[in-house]
Structures are given as C-alpha cells and as structure tokens.
Amino acid sequence: MVRRLLSITTLALAASLGAACLGPAQAAEDTIKIGYVDPLSGAFAQQGDASLKHFAYLFERINAEGGALGKKFEIVPYDSKLQPAEALIALKSITDQNIPFIMHCAGSNVAAALIDGVSKHNARNPNNRVIYLNCGALASDLTNDQCDFWHFRFDANTGMRAETLVRSLPKTLQSVYLINQDYLFGQTLQKETKLYLAKLRPDIKIVGEELIPLGRVKDFSPYISKVKASGAQAMITGNWGPDLNLMMKTSVEAGLDLSYYTYLAHVVGGATSVGAMGENRLFTVTEFHPNVPSEQKSAAGEEFVAKWRASHDFDLFQMNNYALLKMLASAINKAGSTDAYKVALALEGQTVKDPMGHDYIMRKEDHQMLEPLYAAQFVKDVKYDSEKTGFGWKTVTAVEAADLAQPTTCKMKRPAS
Amino acid sequence: MEIILVSLLNGLVYGMLLFMLASGLTLIFSMMGVLNFAHASIYMIGAYLAFEVSRWFGFLPALILAPILCGAIGAAIEIWGLRRVHHNGHIAELLFTFGLVFIVQRGVQMIWGMLPMPYRVPSYLDFPLFTLYGANFPAYRGFMLLISAGMLLAIWLLLKKTRVGLIIQAALTHPNMVSSLGHNVPMVFTGVFAGGCGLAGLAGVIGGNYLTTESSMADAMGPIVFVVVVFGGLGSLAGCFIASIIMGMIQTFAVVFDYTIADMFSPLFKVPEMDTLLGEILTVPMSRIGPLLPYALMILILLVRPRGLLGTRDT
Question: I need a surface site. Which of A63, A193, A304, B275 has the fewest CB within 10 A?
Fold first, then answer.
C-alpha cells in the first residue's frame, strides 16, 4: 500500500514536473519523447493507469534493446480525463514542445477528435508536424471513412475482433443476445458482430439486441429478465467495467445458464470483479494473455511475462504496444530522424515480430496494424492466473495477423512532402 | 404478467438502495441547508471500509462497524470543516463539499488503488431465496430489502417518537429558540451530519458488494441520488422515499417495455417516418433511454413544481 502510494505520488510529481520544466532550453536532446494522453484521473483513471504501467515496462524493454538512433525513448504523460477537449489541449502542449509523437489509447470519441486535431495542426504547421500513434481506440471507422495519413492504429479494430469472436463460437451455439454500450465503440461492435455472424455463422439466431447507456445502469435485472425470456444460449457484449461485471453478476445470480462472449473482459480489473462466477462461462478476445507463451512453448515469451508478473499484480495484455514501440524504433532508424513525415512513410508496411515470433504488419492503405488475436476462456487450470483470482485465460482460438486482413474503405489523402 | 411481477420486485430493491443513500442527504439538507456533494463519496468510503472489515472480521461486524466509522468521519468533517466555512455562507459550504469529492476519490485511489475490490456477498447470503417464474431471486436482495425497511422504520421512530427527534425537528425550524432552551444546537447539527453519513456508509456496506466496489462508484451514484432528493422535495423524508421507489420502478420498467414515443401516439395518429433529429427522438426505444428518464423527470418537476413532490420550499 505504501509503495503504491509512493509510486503514485512520484508519478504525479513526475508528470507535473515534466510538463512544467521541460522548456526548449532544457529539453535533453538525448531522448526521443512521446507525448502520451489518456485518462489518468477521475472515474476512468484505471484504464489510463494500466496502460501507463504497460508503457513503463515496454519502454524499459525497448530502451534495453537499443532505442532508436542510439537514443532512448521517454514517455511524457498527459491527462485526457477521457474528454476530447482535454486531449486537444494536451496536443497543443505536445506540439509546443516540438514532440513529434502523440500516443493515445482510451476512447474512440477522443481518438476521432485527435485525428482531426492532428490533421489540421500538420496542415497549418508544416515545420512542426506530429504523428498520432493510436494504441487502443478501436472503432473501425477510424481507419475506414475517417482514416488519415497522420493516424496509425496499433491495435486490432472492432471488425477484426468481431470476426475473431464469431470464429471462436462453438458449433453447438444456436442463439445469442447482443448487449452493448450506447456510444461509438459499442454501436460499432453491435453492427460488426451482426455483420460477421451473418457472414460466418448464418445458423446462429440473434434473439435480442440492446444498447445500454454507458455506465448509467445500476440494476441489470430487467435486462436479464428479457434475456431469459428470449431463450438465448449466450450473450455477446463489448461492455467493460461495471457494465460488464454487474450484468454478469445479475445474470449468474438469477440462475441463467449462459456463456458470455466479451470483447473486453481481459482488461485490468475484469478478472477481479468477475471472479469465480466467470469460470468456464466467460470468454474474451484479446491481443495477448499471460498463458500464450506457455501454450506456444516460447521461452522468450515466458521470460517477457515472468518479468512483468514479478512486479505487477494484474495481467500483461498489451502486446500490441510492444509492436508499436518496435515499429516506431525501426521506422525512426530507417528514416534517420524523428521528422514526422519521414517516420510516417517509414512506418507504412513495417513488419515486426513479438517474442513468440508472430508477425505484426502496418498496412499502408489505411494505417491499420494487423496483429494476432486470441479468443480465450476463463478457466481454473492454467499456468498463470489473473489478478490472483485463481482463474486465468486459456486460448480457444488463435488467429494470425495475415488472416485478419479485412478490406478497408479508406481513401487516404497523402501529403506531397 | 410474470415480467411485471419480477420487475416490481427488482424496482423495489433498487429503489430502497437509492432511498438509503438519499435519506441521509435529504436529512442533512433539511437540517443545515447544505447540499452535501460528498455524500456519494461517503457511500464509497463505506463500501471500502466494509470490504476491509469483512476481510478480517466477517460481513456482520462490517455491517455495524463501517457505518459507525463513516458517521465518525462525517462528524469530523462537520466539526473541523463545515462549521468553519459556515460563516462564509452556503456557497462556501457547497464548494467545500464539492472539493471533498475530489479529495476522497483521489485518496481512495491512492490507498486502495484503481482496481475494483473483490468485495463479495457473504456465502451464507449467497443462495436463491425463491424462484419466480424460473428466475432466481437472490437472498441478498431480500436481505437488502430487510435492512433498508428496518432503517426506514428506525429513522421514522427516531424522528417522530423520541425526544431526540423532537429536538432535531425543532432545531430544523427554530434553531435560536432551541438554543435558548439550553440545547446545544451545533451538537445537534454534528449529530445529524454524522447520522446522515452513517446512513450513506450503511448503503455503501450493502451496495458495495451488490454493485461493485471501485473508485468510480461515487461518480456513478452521485447524480442519481441528487435527482431523487430534488424530485422528492429537498428536505422531505417522505418525498425522498416516494421518489426513490418511483425512480427504481421507472428505470426497471423502462427497460422491459420496448415502446417508443411514436408508439404512444399510434392509437391517435400515425407518426410519419422522419429522417430528422425529431424522428430519431420519437423512434428511439424506451429501453435505450431508460436510465436517463430520471433526469428528464427531474427537469420536468423543476419546471412545474420547483419544490419537488413533497418539499416545502423552492429549490
């Protein structure tokens, strides 16, 4: 407890100091800075905090591997409070310091604002351009109709996740109920889950669908009564946080015998709040989970996970962000500088490998990274449990990056220079 | 028919939980004229304390200890905080409680971290109480109903049937007179504030494992509690009770019925299909906006009856 308190205090100090005294004069030239914008305070701080801890680990790793151009990477955190307006203020501050990279993970609505903000900034300031490294805003629109040259998404979008989930559904499953949160991400998932169900599993009947207001539902029992009345065998949901675990809790307590196919149950806090009631019933689609290396018998992967677990009490799952840093390092080396335009060109078509040897490919047409995805089940007998619950993830279906090359509608406007 | 019965029960459970939180808030307001923004934060502290106590001593001691601790925290806030800013008027008090919200949230995140706590329903209450049309009614929900009904009865008896209640009620309307009669009015204020916080703590104990114990739980519960208090009439305990039950029922039933506003008009005339904002508003199913209905109701009541259902003064 004391250690956590200390670490948070230092973090807060570091963040405020970092923002305050890194004027151009003092800006140490020996690091490559990456501005990082995510909710670090308020109700959604949990997500930002988890990503920040992932990055602390991954930055150390990538710096140990040599960084780029002989320099080390440095993260400069900003608080977005999950508000587009706050993220744009952070963008301003980042460009004021001539930092050429802005990284952001949480919230597709924030991402949409940032894509627009970065694009406009770059058009107006050709001498001070930035690349937007998207590390987890997933709505597929961001690399389709809203795609932009300066935006690179380093995580599988909702369409890829929906396809993976539908592929992992067992043959015996005949009827499902869809529940999602009523905002860009949830609506996109609802639409795409239906799309891939129709395409890959036309035998499955959708017996009901529901959009719920984000984080506003305190009592899920009326929804559960409807699910029960519909006779569904499984629920497919992109809900996260309380919207996921309250829903499952109510459903399990009401005695419903359902499977829960989720998109985000693996994120931090998921295992703790679901606990034993998720045993064998809970499924997720994730970019990585701690048991992947042992399932694939990869010693390098095992080492990657073991080192994380020695100092963290929640799961390492953002393997995509390791690919992000590797791609960025290699693109900077290839470009020979941190100039945003040169690095952006060098990022296109990059391929890197994770410790298990899987490919991650940055697609040129829409700047969407292709990555392996895992559909996993929450079970008891696994090597590593999640968040000390005694339960952990076991892969049901693994999909390689190349298998998820879904078409894109992106018509990218490319700057001349 | 069966879905109506099930929904009635569910709405009642949720309404009672709301009441437990809102009653403390409305008591404090009627007493001191302070709208305590930090009320939901005390609820959160109650849940975290209950988790800690139940980890070492079990759930029943937590049920008693956590509200008492919350009451003590409330008393401390009143004596060392509110009483000092009181001279500067209500705005200062409001700002003070508003600031507390942030301090408590950050404090909780620093002490317990940002992950949800594994605070679970005790095993001896974790069984289906009865089965209603094939769906289980968890025993813990029954227990929640029992606790909140007991609390309602206790407050009512305290305020209406005892000497303490007499003094509290008198201090509410005629503080100077009560003071002249030799009663320690500031002490009464502290007591009421502590009591209100204790109730919020109790709601935290039984709400923490029914919902989820995490650092955003105050944010999630805060607004709806205000809606209940404003709707029922600031300072009115009976209004607060009625409003809680109404809110609980509305939220539950809105989800069950898949009607749209356009459907409501359909017996009278056919609403033409429109591809405009109005068309969208008219055709969005009730279930999708259910949890927002309480807020709409609050706006409505502020327009037509600003004092709330049973309130005696305008908000």
Answer: B275
